[in-house]
Structure formats: structure tokens, C-alpha cells
Here is the input.
Amino acid sequence: MKGIKADILAFGAHADDIEIGMGGTAAKYAAAGQTIVFCDLTKAELSSNGTVASRTEEAQKAADLLGVQERVTLDLPDRGLFLTQESIRSVAEIIRLYQPKVIFAPYEKDRHPDHGACSRIVQEAFFSAGIRKYETNGKDNAHKADRLYFYMINGFHSPDFCVDTSDFMHTKKQSLQAYRSQFEMGADSVVTPLTSGYIEAVEARDRMMGKEVGQTFAEGFLTTVPLLIEHDLIGDKE
Here is the structure.
């Protein structure tokens, strides 16, 4: 881990979580020159399809397609994500290492327990990383990110705000298609929710989200604190 300073640091329980929820947003801000870092909490070693090695290769390809500068993977156990001091400290160390302006995590309400657990761990780490006396690896380099936002993986929830991703939907789809072991049926594959039209469902959700805000595609996000609107309250002059 190099520890470059990140504008956006996004966490997911497994590789492909971030792409599903905010791949278009990541690509959009990367194209605008922002530094994007992804962190997967587990190696997804219990996935029904694929292997740790194939998933790692696919994850890096997906990150490259989106313009992500760095992708790191922690060694927390798949289906063993719990709100422990170890898990909180591991995530807090990543936050302090990359010093992000904004952090993203999965929305807590999700059919997969690991996604909700990841959300809770990141929320705790977001707070703890900013406490000067909170120790991570014996270092005192507290960092308080400006904001913590939540993206959707499974399901459709009413967002607090949306990002127009119309110009980046194709890139998002490419990043998801990089996970061939997860979204395609191979000779040794078993049927899962991911192999049954999942990418098409994500595209439909982003299209519906876009329709809600007058765009072709959009990704929706949630927040626990109000957003301050300034220059874009009225919108651009025509």
C-alpha cells in the first residue's frame, strides 16, 4: 500500500460491491482528475463462483477501467465481518493512510449481511480515525474525512442525492463485465443472483434513478447528515 492522498476512498465488503453501487460515480470523478482509492475488506474467499486469484485479477481490471489509482484488499474474513475492535482498527488504518476527503460505504440495509456489516464497520472507523489518541499500528496520525456517504448494492432505496452518471454507464458496465467469474455462467459455475441478469438489473436501477432526476442514468446515495447546497441551488444558466 502506497498511501497516496485520496479525494475519494470507497469501501466494499467484496470486490465488485463498489462497482455495483458507484462505479459510474468513481469513473466520473476519476475522469475529472480526482484521486480514487478502493478498499475491499475481504478476499471474497467464500464466493460460490471463481477463486480468490481470479477475483483479484478481475478486481484490478475493473479498477483500471474506472480510472481508480489504487485498490487494496484487507484480510478480514468473508462472512466473518463483525463489529470488532480488530475490524474497526483495520479500516481506520486505511483511512489514516489515504487521508481521504470523502468516504463511501455500502448502505446498511441490504440482503447480504456482509454489506450491512461493512457499513457499520466503516461508520465506526470513520469516527475513530479522527480521534487523536485512537491508536492504529502505534501511530498518531488522526484524520477526519469531510463526509461519509452510502451507496446501494442490492435493492432500490430512496436516495438523499444522486450523481449524474449518464456519460459513464458504459464504463460502469465494462467494470462489472470484468468480473466474468461472478456474472457469467461457466462450465463449473453454479446459479446465483449474480448470474441471473444482475448487470441488467443494475443498469435498470441506474436508469430509473436517472429518470427521477431528469437524467439518462444516475447513482443514488444516502447520508446521515444534511447536505449544504450553495452554488448549484438554482442550477446552471441556459
